[in-house]
């Protein structure tokens, strides 16, 4: 079909996930005409098979643990059973409501949603089912998909997070391959639902991207919960026979399970979409951009998981907004990846922002750290959780890293992010009052201590 005036937009966006739709909404707010091409459902990975469904499962898991452990507080409850149909109904209800809300927002913003699989024809044209959309600017936002290992085929009892989110029964024995964020979140859910869980991780520790001290607390807590972590040992192979999947490891050991969840990372969705033919540079499948998310091809930008860096929904939102503002000529400020908050919603939760102690030493030389143990925090005692708030500061300088672990500590990330983002010194934070009794006080106490005036802590 030839180009027509109606098919010409200020911005054509390929992919309606976190990065793509954020860009679409902001561009529309700024008065631009926008076409948003999506082959599946608006909201992408995060809404349909990522953040939202996993967090719904984790909440159901928390309720299961609460029921199981009520008698420890003198509340005599027992966990009768997990009804996966009920759990999935709850999870899918949350997704459906949010999806409906997003569709409403797209309509309100007058973003034209184009259903179908799109392909970049040249720097200003995206083709969808024979229809050509012309954009003064084009934004690539096709996201990511689960990876597997060479020779490990997904199917049957070997699955990725996508199939694991749709299980209709609780498996008795699960092996989780990969001890990163997605792996430990699923391990946590399965354990709370009653499965026997083993996490296999080739690196020496779980959540290896986090500060080492955080991994130690998580591993200890998982051990206490009965989750086995096989770290420092590589996966060798897996076979399926009837109802059993047998996982072999490089050390010669084998583990039998009902389900093998492959959580070894996510790769970019960029193959066969015409990117390279249009002049866009790919590196290991990821789109190369400058720090302003420009691909080097005039008028073509990329956002979200296809851009190397942290694969997080809120990074996608920020990048989408950034690109819309960049196109509008607003010259938005570049946000470094180190200022992006990271939360792992397992039990216990992990929340961090900025540099780990090791990274800070490498970047800044001399650093000071302080670890405030949640043992001294009233609310954490009430919740019966263990963990800490660890601060990393440049010697006599700003706080460059905050690392937290413990039940519900994800909720503390907001203030931690402001502290790191504003390059605050412990002395700047120490006078601020933190409400009692909250877990938030632990963040305040850590800064008081690092400023040389500890309250509920030893100096
Ligand atoms: C199990 C799991 C849990 C997660 N939990 C969290 C969390 O708690 N917090 C967090 O911040 N992040 C989380 N993430 C990561 C988060 O989902 C991603 O970072 C985010 O979705 C990336 O957004 P995106 O827009 O780059 O890509 P996506 O969300 O993947 O969206 C890309 C979209 O493009 C569409 N598309 C692809 N190719 C085409 C084409 N050719 N034509 C048309 N459309 C196309 C796809 O259908 C998709 O809708 C999780 C991910 C997973 C898998």
TrEMBL record:
It is an enzyme of class 1 (oxidoreductase). This is Dihydrolipoyl dehydrogenase. Its main location: cytoplasm. The active site is at 436 (proton acceptor). Residues 340-446 form the Pyridine nucleotide-disulphide oxidoreductase dimerisation domain. Disulfide bonds join 46-51. Residues 9-320 form the FAD/NAD(P)-binding domain. Its EC number is 1.8.1.4. It is found in: Cytoplasm. GO terms for cellular component: cytoplasm. NAD(+) binds at residues 178-185, 201, 265, 305. Gene3D superfamilies: 3.30.390.30, FAD/NAD(P)-binding domain. GO terms for biological process: 2-oxoglutarate metabolic process. It catalyses: N(6)-[(R)-dihydrolipoyl]-L-lysyl-[protein] + NAD(+) = N(6)-[(R)-lipoyl]-L-lysyl-[protein] + NADH + H(+). FAD binds at residues 55, 118, 142-144. Binds 1 FAD per subunit. Its cofactor is FAD. SUPFAM superfamilies: FAD/NAD(P)-binding domain, FAD/NAD-linked reductases, dimerisation (C-terminal) domain. PANTHER family: DIHYDROLIPOYL DEHYDROGENASE, DISULFIDE OXIDOREDUCTASE. InterPro entries: Class-I_Pyr_Nuc-Dis_Oxidored, FAD/NAD-bd_sf, FAD/NAD-binding_dom, FAD/NAD-linked_Rdtase_dimer_sf, Lipoamide_DH, Pyr_nuc-diS_OxRdtase, Pyr_nucl-diS_OxRdtase_dimer, Pyr_OxRdtase_I_AS. Keywords: Cytoplasm, Disulfide bond, FAD, Flavoprotein, NAD, Nucleotide-binding, Oxidoreductase, Redox-active center. The keyword Nucleotide-binding applies. Belongs to the class-I pyridine nucleotide-disulfide oxidoreductase family. Pfam families: Pyr_redox_2, Pyr_redox_dim. GO terms for molecular function: dihydrolipoyl dehydrogenase (NADH) activity; flavin adenine dinucleotide binding. The active site is a redox-active disulfide bond.
């Amino acid at each position: 079909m030839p180009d027509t005036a109606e098919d010409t937009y200020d911005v054509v966006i390929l992919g309606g996930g976190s990065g793509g739709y954020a860009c679409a909404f902001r561009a529309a707010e700024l008065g631009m005409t926008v076409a948003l091409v999506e082959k599946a459902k608006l909201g992408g990975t995060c809404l349909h098979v990522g953040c939202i469904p996993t967090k719904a499962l984790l909440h159901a898991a928390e309720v299961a643990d609460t029921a199981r452990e009520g008698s420890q507080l003198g509340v005599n409850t027992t966990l009768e059973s997990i009804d996966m149909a009920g759990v999935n109904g709850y999870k899918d209800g949350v997704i459906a409501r949010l999806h409906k809300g997003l569709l409403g927002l797209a309509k309100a913003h007058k973003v034209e949603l184009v259903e179908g699989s799109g392909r970049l024809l040249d720097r200003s044209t995206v083709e969808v089912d024979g229809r050509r959309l012309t954009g003064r600017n084009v934004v690539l936002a096709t996201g990511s998909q689960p990876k597997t290992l060479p020779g490990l085929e997904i199917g049957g009892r070997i699955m990725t997070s996508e199939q694991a989110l749709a299980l209709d029964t609780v498996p008795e024995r699960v092996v989780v391959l990969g001890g990163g964020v997605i792996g430990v979140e699923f391990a946590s859910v399965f354990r709370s639902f009653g499965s026997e869980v083993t996490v296999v991780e080739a690196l020496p520790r779980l959540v290896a991207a986090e500060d080492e001290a955080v991994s130690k607390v998580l591993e200890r807590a998982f051990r206490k919960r009965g989750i086995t972590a096989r770290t420092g040992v590589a996966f060798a192979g897996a076979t399926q026979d009837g109802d059993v999947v047998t996982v072999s490891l490089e050390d010669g050991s084998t583990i039998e399970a009902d389900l093998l969840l492959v959580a070894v990372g996510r790769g970019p969705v960029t193959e066969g979409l015409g990117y390279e033919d249009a002049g866009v540079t790919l590196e290991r499948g990821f789109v190369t951009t400058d720090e302003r998310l420009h691909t080097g091809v005039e008028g073509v930008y990329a956002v979200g998981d296809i851009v190397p860096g942290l694969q997080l929904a809120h990074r996608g939102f920020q990048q989408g907004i950034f690109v819309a503002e960049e196109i509008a000529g607003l010259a938005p400020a570049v946000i470094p990846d180190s200022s992006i908050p990271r939360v792992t919603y397992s039990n216990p939760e992990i929340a961090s922002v900025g540099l780990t102690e090791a990274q800070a030493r490498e970047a800044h030389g001399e650093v000071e750290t302080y670890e405030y143990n949640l043992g001294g925090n009233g609310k954490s005692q009430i919740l019966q959780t263990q963990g800490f708030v660890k601060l990393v500061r440049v010697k006599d300088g700003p706080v460059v890293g905050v690392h937290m672990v413990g039940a519900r500590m994800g909720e503390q990330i907001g203030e931690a992010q402001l502290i790191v983002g504003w390059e605050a010194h412990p002395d700047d934070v120490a006078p601020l009052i933190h409400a009692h009794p909250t877990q938030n006080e632990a963040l305040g106490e850590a800064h008081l201590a690092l400023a040389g005036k500890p309250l509920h802590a030893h100096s």
